[in-house]
Amino acid sequence: MEVIFETPRLLLREFTLEDAPLLLQLNSDPEVLKYLHEPLLQDEAHAETILRNIILPQYENKLGRWAVYLKENNVFIGWCGLKHRPELEEIDLGYRFMQTAWGKGFATEAAKQTLVYGFKNLNLSLITGRAHIHNIASIRVLEKIGMEYIGEGIVDDCPVKTFTLQNPY
Ligand SMILES: CC(C)(COP(=O)(O)OP(=O)(O)OC[C@H]1O[C@@H](n2cnc3c(N)ncnc32)[C@H](O)[C@@H]1OP(=O)(O)O)[C@@H](O)C(=O)NCCC(=O)NCCS
Fold first, then answer.
1. Which tens digit of pLDDT belongs to each residue from 58-95?
2. Which CATH homologous superfamily contains domain 3-166?
3. How many CB atoms lie within 10 A of CB 36?
4. What is the pTM of this model?
5. Is 35 in the pocket of ligand 1 (CB under 6 A)?
C-alpha cells in the first residue's frame, strides 16, 4: 500500500484491486453521483473493472485518484487526487466523499494538500478543477483552496464552472 501524503486529519493512499468493496460503497450512492456523468455501480465486479481499467493505470505517472482515510479511526471516506486528461490537455483535480463525511472540511483539507503535492512533488505547471454549475459544495471547495475561476462551459456534456491554478513554487 503506497501512502501518498498525510494531512492533519487524513491519510491518502493508492487504491488496489482489493478496494472494490470501498469503491462500490462510494459509487452506489445516487446523492454522491448526483452531479457526475457516471453510472451507479451495481456490484463489486463492476467496481473492480473501474479500478483495473481506470483508476490503477493512472498511477503509472504518479498521478491518480487516492483513497482517503480518517487517521483517527482508519475509516475510508472517499477519494481525492489528480488525473491526466489528455483529450483536454490538462491535469484534473477531483474529490468524492461518502455523505457521512460531508460538511466537515475534509474535501478542502485533502484538495489543498493535493495541490501542494502536484506542484511541489510532481512539478506540474497548471492544475484544473471543474464542477457542475449546481454543485455548490464542490465549487466552494475550489474557491476555498485558492483556485481561480476561469468561466463556464460544457465539458463531457455537462455545464461546468472551470477553475485553474498555476504552480506558485
Ligand atoms: C463536493 C464534496 C467533495 C464536498 O466535500 P466536503 O468535505 O463536504 O467539503 P468541505 O466541507 O471541505 O467544504 C464544503 C463547502 O461547501 C459549502 N456547502 C455545501 N453545500 C452547500 C450548499 N448547498 N450551499 C452553499 N454552500 C454549501 C460548505 O458550507 C463548505 O463551505 P464553508 O466551509 O465555506 O462553509 C462532497 O459534497 C462530495 O463528495 N460530493 C459528491 C461528489 C462530488 O460532487 N464531487 C465533486 C465533483 S466536481
1. 998 899 999 999 999 999 999 999 999 999 999 999 99
2. Gcn5-related N-acetyltransferase (GNAT) (3.40.630.30)
3. 16
4. 0.97
5. yes
